[in-house]
Every structure is written in C-alpha cells, then in structure tokens.
# Entry
Amino acid sequence: MQYDQEHDPYRGFRGVGDLGPGKEQTALIVIDMQNCFCHPDVSFAKLGPDITMLADAIPGCVELVEAARAAGVPVIYTQAVFRPDYRDGGIIFNELKKPITEVGAMIAGSWDAEIVDELRPRPEDFIVLKHRFSAFYGTDLEVILSSLQIGSLVICGVTTNICVETTARDAAQRNFRTYVVRDATGEVDPVKHDHALTTLEYAFCRTTGKDDVIAAWTGRKAAAPTAV
# Structure
C-alpha cells in the first residue's frame, strides 16, 4: 500500500532519499518465475489458488530482463527445485506445505519446475537452484554476487510475500541496497501482496516501479503516473 505523506503511519521513521538503482554494481534477481506458479495447467493451480496475479507478473519481468541485458546488468534467476521424494524439502514442504508434495510441484528436471518460456535464461545468465524460500539460504547466490562485485539488487518475480519478501529481507541483512519492483511481482492474494510490499518498505528495502528501474538503466524518462 502506498501512503501519502499526511496519512503515512511510518512517516516518522523514513530514512534518507535515494536516486534509484543505477546499472553499475547492480544485479537483477528474478525469483521463481516457473511454470508451476505461472501456468494454469500445472501443480500450483491444482491446489486451488488464483494464479492470475502470478502470471500477470510475467510481462513486467520480461521488460526488466530485456532492459538489464541491454544495460549490461547481470540477470540471476532463482529456481525452486526438489527431489521426487522431497527428502530435501524439510519441515516446510513435508509438514507445513505438505499438499505441494502431493501434486508433484517443483520436481527437479520436470517441465513444472522449468522457468517460463517468456523468460528463458540465456547462457550468460545465472541460475540459482534453491530448496527454501530465501534465494540466499543454502545456495551459491552470495558467491555469485561477490564475484560480480554487486552492491545493489533489483528483485522481481513470485510470490511477493513468500520468496520475494524472504529474499529481500535476507538481502537487507547482508547490506545489499535492495529494490523490489511492485508491478513485476505477484501473489495469489492482492492483500498479501500489498502487505508484503508495505512491510518491506518499512524496514528492509525500497519498492519501485519497473518503468523507474528501466529509466535508470536506459536513460529514458519514466512515464508520468496516470491521473485518476
């Protein structure tokens, strides 16, 4: 939720301003844009949630990836994958989210777990395989970022209040200047989406729009907001 200055309950906590994500020492992280979350005929949709907002994140992510590649910003995809027996899923997936295992979601090597066709990685991109919500936990993400001398992260993808939020929180703890893109993320519940963005902006990172990110990387002027 975006507050105006008068009604912002957190206005007394606001920090310093920011010019936005430049293209130097910045990486784009695309979180879990996989068939299992974004396609209507595979595992996640079988569990009942409305995945419309997840699929709607695809075009924004495509724009960001194309702009990143053109600007020389590294693109890092995350991909949630598991063994067929989910012995690497731990308590989260074998107890708290047990139905996910019952529909065969995110099994490594399956079409269900693959990144959507619209965002197919290129050879120069990085792919980080993960077994938990955070892209940092138990992965080589930090090694990649350190090797590339990255100091700022732009995060897009799904889902906003689980893997996007968890990754952004972990990035903050590691002192990365982090930006979550409001209109290139998605959740099964718009309320949870808004709540996650509000929480992140309160203490962990900045939120921004894709047009502002693309403008910062390309030098184009961002479009003015539409009057309502």
